[in-house]
């Protein structure tokens, strides 16, 4: 099952094209116009997950930021090839399988 917040973020970015960014509030308003403030923390959490997967870049003043410093006004955009490679390289290795233990 697809996450509706994740889908909304990626759809909004796809509409804009490469190099363009959106505010998390734009996505929250798209999902729940009347109570978008309640949706905003969920949008930011989903964006953080997408960033850790290498599928999204979180920026501040046009520059990619460390997620630990995600504070204040941020924007979301699709990552460059270099940013995707760096995010994937920073992921912890997958646990080894125990298939040979019988």
Q: Give the proportion of residues in helices.
A: 40-55%
Strand content: 5-15%
The count of helical stretches stands at 4
| Structural Rg | 16 Å
Q: What is the straight-line distance between the termini?
A: 33 Å
Protein name: DUF3253 domain-containing protein
List keywords for this structure.
four-stranded antiparallel β-sheet; 102 residues; alpha+beta; 4 strands; 4 helices; 47% helix; single chain
Task: Provide a short characterization of the protein structure.
With 102 residues, the chain is of the alpha+beta class. Helices cover 47% and strands 11% of the residues.
What does this structure look like?
The N and C termini lie far apart (33 Å). This protein has a four-stranded antiparallel β-sheet with strand order 1-4-2-3. It has 102 residues and is α+β, with helices and mostly antiparallel strands. Helix content is 47%, strand content 11%. The chain has a domain at 7-65. It contains four helices and four strands.
Q: What topology does this entry show?
A:
Elements: H1 4-16, E1 21-22, H2 24-31, H3 36-52, E2 57-60, E3 63-64, E4 75-77, H4 81-90
Antiparallel strand pairs: 1-4, 2-3, 2-4
Helix pairs in contact: 1-2, 2-3
Organism: Brevundimonas viscosa
Protein name: DUF3253 domain-containing protein
Pfam families: DUF3253
């Amino acid at each position: 099952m697809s996450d509706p917040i994740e889908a909304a973020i990626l759809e909004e970015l796809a509409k804009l094209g490469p190099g363009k960014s959106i505010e998390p509030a734009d996505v929250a308003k798209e999902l729940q116009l009347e109570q978008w403030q309640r949706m905003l923390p969920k949008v930011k959490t989903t964006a953080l997950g997408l960033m850790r997967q290498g599928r999204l870049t979180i920026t501040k003043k046009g520059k990619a930021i460390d997620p630990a410093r995600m504070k204040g006004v941020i924007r979301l955009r699709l990552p460059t090839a270099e940013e995707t490679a760096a995010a994937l390289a920073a992921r912890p290795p997958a646990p080894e399988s125990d298939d040979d233990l019988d």
